[in-house]
Every structure is written in structure tokens, then in C-alpha cells.
Hints:
- Pfam families: HxlR.
- With 125 residues, the chain is mainly alpha-helical.
- It folds into two domains: 1-76, Orthogonal Bundle (Arc Repressor Mutant, subunit A), CATH 1.10.10; 82-125, no CATH class.
- It has helices spanning 6-14, 17-29, 34-38, 47-55, 77-80, 83-96, 104-112, 114-124, and strands spanning 59-65, 70-75.
- It has a two-stranded antiparallel sheet with strand order 1-2.
- Strand 1 and strand 2 form a beta hairpin.
- Helix 7 packs across helix 8 (114-124).
- The longest helix has 14 residues, at 83-96.
Amino acid sequence: xxxxxxxSSALDVLGDRxxxxxxxxxxxxxxxxxxxxxxxxxxxxxNVLADRLESxxxxxxTTDDPRSGKxxxxxxxxxxxxxxxxxxxxxxxxRHDAGAIAPPELVDAYRADxxxxxxxxxxxx
Length: 125
């Protein structure tokens, strides 16, 4: 049996950097297609990762055009619940890493109204 620690359990799903970067792009940037993830600074390949996130219930995959087979990724409610986590990581990094470049308007708004900004992103996603 694995650890019953809730942080350990979360890391079993979210423990690699790519998971949080995909969720950042889905939830904060609005990316939906594989080509958009590949165009990010990190050039995220979603194929295997998307299958894992889908099996965990964090994202859903739909087919935009059945003839082309192009897939669209969407966060589930479980995935949208990661918004405050991502915002807190962004705020923490902005505060403690001089090399991190976070959108100042988002960071300022989040620090002024954490719940409101998180709720607004959740509703918009």
C-alpha cells in the first residue's frame, strides 16, 4: 500500500513538471490542441501525458473533426480545481525567483483577491 499522505497522493498524479505545464496551458492560457502545446516555450508533447491525465479524470479529449481526427483537450471539474494551485505556484515563483516572468496584472490581481481571480478563471475555463 502506498502512502496515505495527501501531498504524496497528489504528487502521484501531478509529480512531473509536464503535467502542471499542460494544465497551465489548458487553464490559464486556453490552449486546446496538440499543435498549440508544441508551440509553447517548453514544446510540450501531449500524446502519452494526455492519456494519463484523461485516465485520472483531469482532462477530457474530444474530436473536433471526425474526418481529420484532430483532438481537443478540455479540463474537467477535477482539472479546474488545480487553478488555485497553479496561481499559487506562479505567485510563489514570482516572489522568489528573479528569473521568472509572470504576467504582472495577473499576479497583482491574484494577490489582491485570490478567491475572486481563481473563481473567474474557473468560470471562464
